Amino acid sequence: MGSRELSLRERQVLGIIIQSYVVTAAPVGSRYIARNYSLGLSDATIRNVMADLEDEGYIHQPHTSAGRIPTDLGYRYYVDLIMKVQRIDEDEKRRMETDYGQIAMEHPGTSRDVLLSAAKVLGCISRQLSVVLSPTLSDAVFERLDMVLLSSTRMMVILSIHSLFVKTIVMELPLEVSRKMIEEVSDVINERLAGLTLSEIRRSIAHRLAGSHGDGALKDLIVRSAGSLFDESPIFERLYISGTEYIVDQPEFKQPERVRELITMIEDKFSVARLVEKSGHMSEALRPSDMDVTISIGSENSTREAEDLTIVSTPYYAGNMVGRLGILGPKRMDYEHAVRVLNYMADSLTATLTEAN
């Protein structure tokens, strides 16, 4: 099915069916196409073209005497070979810059604030579910460590990493420590480890702290805890989501059981994070040419819960770290618009995090 190159006429009809279905969420018939589009084709000819497209699996008839709607294969052909993504228009660009800037100014400071701002603006502009996955930290460059004494046997450890990223852990201590002890050990750690990646620190911390001044028992505890202190955050803690109110308002999710399924999936942050992460490792066949965007449609997704969804995602950069942001919505989404706003937000996010270095 769908193994040959479509003719110009077939491409035109398939494109019209998809574009119309995106707007109306209603099956598209040959008479509608003949009346509303100047293709120079009769109603009967368009019906024949649609019959060929249906035979090859690009469209299907949801019920008798209805028009046709796209299949996953039809959407895939459209995304790869028909759609043309224009540059974002100035009004939308201005709106994104204004909204992103305002939210960022209201919550200045850490990467968490920046990524949450990006998710909110992306959800609002795309009118879909937006997701931002923060980078893995193995290649992140360590800047400094601060230890805050909460009690004589409890302290908070704050790791500052390039590009506004911060990791915070509360540690229960098997020994009593003083403020002076943690200041001395913090100074040693910052002097000997600053500028290394977290993976380098995990591998060599014992060697690098050997022979340094400071309380030996506290240093030993930090060395033993390096696997958690300087390790990745769990994937679900790296996920920022916004726009649930937009996706549940789509016609595809009007039935109560569909809404429940969707909300259950969204609330499982681990599954959503894995979906977005996996979308970044898909084959080039799922990547439109000349774009750094991956589009995974329906059955191409890795879980049954996402078989009725499209995931559009792209990387963003923070120094030598790579994160991912995406849009999740029904297969009947405006793909050109999704790619435009996603690319622009990825560039804005990269610029913000690069300037923070």
Automatic annotation (TrEMBL):
Q: Name one GO biological process term.
A: negative regulation of DNA-templated transcription
Cite the entry's keywords alphabetically.
Repressor, Stress response, Transcription, Transcription regulation
Gene Ontology MF terms in the entry: DNA binding
Tell me the function of this protein: Negative regulator of class I heat shock genes (grpE-dnaK-dnaJ and groELS operons). Prevents heat-shock induction of these operons.
SUPFAM superfamilies xref list: GAF domain-like, Winged helix' DNA-binding domain
The family annotation for this protein states: Belongs to the HrcA family.
Its gene is: hrcA
Q: Which InterPro entries match?
A: GAF-like_dom_sf (IPR029016), HrcA (IPR002571), HrcA_C (IPR021153), WH-like_DNA-bd_sf (IPR036388), WH_DNA-bd_sf (IPR036390), WHTH_transcript_rep_HrcA_IDD (IPR023120)
Any idea where the Heat-inducible transcription repressor HrcA C-terminal domain is?
A: 113-339
What sections of the sequence does the record tag as coiled-coil? none
Q: Which organism is it from?
A: Chlorobium phaeovibrioides
Is Isomerase one of the keywords UniProt gives this record? no
For this entry, the protein name equals Heat-inducible transcription repressor HrcA
